[in-house]
Amino acid sequence: MEEIKPFEFKQCVSILKATGRKAGNLREMRDVIATVSDESIFHHTYQYFLKGHILEYTNDFAHWAGESLEERALGERLSGIDPYGFRNIGELRNELLRVIDEYLEKFPEPREAMHGDEFYFNQTITLTFPVGIWVRNLAEFLIAVKYIDAGSIYYHFYEARVRLGEGVDDFSAWIQNVVLNKELADRIRSIDPFMHSIDGIREHIVEAVEEEVKKSMEIIRQ
Amino acid sequence: MINQYSGVSPKGDLVLLQKLGEKLKKKSFLHINSTRSGGGVAEILQRMVPILNELGIDSRWEVIEGDDKFYDITKKIHNAIQGNPENITKEMWTHHYEVNRTNAGRLNLEANAVLIHDPQPAPLIKFRKKGKWIWRCHIDVSNPVKEVCDYLMRYCSKYHAAVFSVARFARAMSIDEFIIPPSIDPLSEKNRELSLEEIHETAARLKIPLDRPALLQVSRFDRFKDPVGVIEAYKIVKKYNDCILVLAGSPATDDPEGEEVLNEVKEYAAGDPDIHILLLPPFSDKDINALQRMSSVILQKSLKEGFGLTVSEAMWKGKPVIGGAVGGIPLQIVHSVTGFLVHSVEGAAFRIRQFLNNPEMAKRMGERGREYVRNNFLITRQTRDYLSVWYSMENKGKSVLEL
């Protein structure tokens, strides 16, 4: 029997680093977004989901505009930006600026954030490491997905999209290419990363894989 | 020792600690602060240094020594850094430096990485022999007395990196600045699991009735902790729900305002047998633990706060928490997810009533709070972060590191 390539679970952990730059109002935020490092833009957009729970927004800029500046419409518009729809950080940065500029044209005097509630631009250093779990089939995969840390789901489901591109995550890639189950891979790929917290993503993956495992067990019984 | 955290801390943190331990094996790591006991820094170092040694990192913890004058000066520096007006004279700075120079002669400062905690030992950087030196600032430097901060920064900017607890505390410096929040130790006397007998013993000794829901705030009697505001909120709640209020704190011997505030609190609470004001001796960790575990709702209604780790301590016990939206409290309480943030007495009263009337919701938020603390505010995470910072400094220039 041909040896199946196991799926190795990895995880990432990010260490926060200050850039030393901050914004107290929308114009200042615009100016810093225009010049801050790619790593900082990456952190405040892609890594938003690493926080583990979804609130009203999909990135830190939208969150700050909506909550601290109370510019709700801008918060909504910035939340509509899908970072996975861009080929690089430069393009994402331009889109953020375009949305903010358009807003500033209509509302040229946005309010100041309260003292102490300014936006602090950070970036991260990310450490990736194997967690010591390998799985060789869907049943093993199911157990592992239930118990791994949220940081591991983030690495394979969100971070993978940046690594692999085109909306592909590590889980569905393995299920399609190694387990050879395209239908299940498509189902996992169709889980919208924006609409769930990491635990929500975990639940959806578990549900889909569990159904598949049950189905295969019924076939064996027959 | 690290095995004790298995099943308590997130698995990934423990795996990463082992991996970083392998990378930094046999290297030396030196921590220096200004007190062996008392205060959050000493509390964490007592536990962290044995963990580091067990990981194979040759770790030491040294404490600087000084005369009374030195500690008077460093207290003034500490206050000024937190924004209280203080004047530090040239002569005082000289004494600060001289005490550090004497300590530098006494202590072995040779290590591959040196973590200097807070302003007291900051001048030791002048006596660096080798290795990476990191200044760890545990206090709020977001609004300091400028002259004092500028003088201190002459030392701090000589370090290879600085670490702050909250992004807002970081300053525009010319060195790398990392953000590492503080943490609690889930196995310490203050946070370990307690048996029902232990909880009942504390309740009986402190004369806290267990027949009705208890609201609790653990804090010094300090205006910034707003104990009077907590009583006002309790009085509003009491019109709707029968409950008791416990305000527990240590007598503030070094704070002349403490007694004044305590008297105000006692006066405001007078005549209500359901308000329990407890003056606990220092190191009443087990009693605080038991008080938190017997409470239905825990408040930290601060008006100004550093990080406010009492919030994480309460959340770790699965309790629903209500906190003032100040300092580090919003980093711990994600509003409506792991607790409630409030901005007024009325807001606090409303949220207490919500919790008392919706035990299911209180339980759910308490559970989420506990998980949030597990993932973000345990000592293993802080240890992991220190080692990650050190490892990243050894691999400078890379934003992704594969282990």
Commentary on this structure:
The complex is a heterodimer of chains A (222) and B (403). Chain A has helices at 26-35, 38-45, 60-67, 72-79, 89-106, 138-147, 150-164, 170-177, 182-189, 198-221, and strands at 7-23, 119-135. Chain A is of the alpha+beta class and 222 residues long. The longest helix of chain A has 24 residues, at 198-221. The relative contact order of chain A is 0.17. The mean pLDDT of chain B is 94. Chain B starts with 10 loop residues before the first helix and ends with a strand. The longest helix of chain B has 18 residues, at 359-376. In chain B, helix 1 packs parallel to helix 14 (379-394). Chain B contains 14 helices and 13 strands. Chain A binds chain B through residues 11, 13, 15-18, 20, 39, 52-53, 55, 116, 118, 120, 122-129, 131-132, 147-152, and chain B through 10-13, 15-16, 19, 142, 164, 167-168, 170-173, 176-180, 326, 334, 337, 372, 375, 384-385, 388-389, 391-392, 398-403.
What's the architecture of the largest domain in chain B, going by CATH?
3-Layer(aba) Sandwich
Percent in helix of chain A: 40-55%
Radius of gyration of chain B, Cα only, in angstroms?
22 Å
**Strands across the major sheet of chain B, in which order?**
2-1-3-4-5-6
Structural class of chain A: alpha+beta
Question: Which chain pair shows the most residues in contact?
Answer: A-B, 30 and 37 residues
Mean pLDDT of chain A: 91
Q: Per CATH, what is the topology of the largest domain in chain B?
A: Rossmann fold
Globally, the shape of chain B reads: globular
Low-confidence stretches of chain B: none
The total strand number of chain B stands at: 13
The CATH class of the largest domain in chain B turns out to be: Alpha Beta
**Overall SS class of chain B:** alpha/beta
Order the strands across the largest sheet of chain A as they lie in space.
Answer: 1-2
Q: Level of helix content of chain B?
A: 40-55%
Give the terminus-to-terminus CA distance of chain A.
23 Å
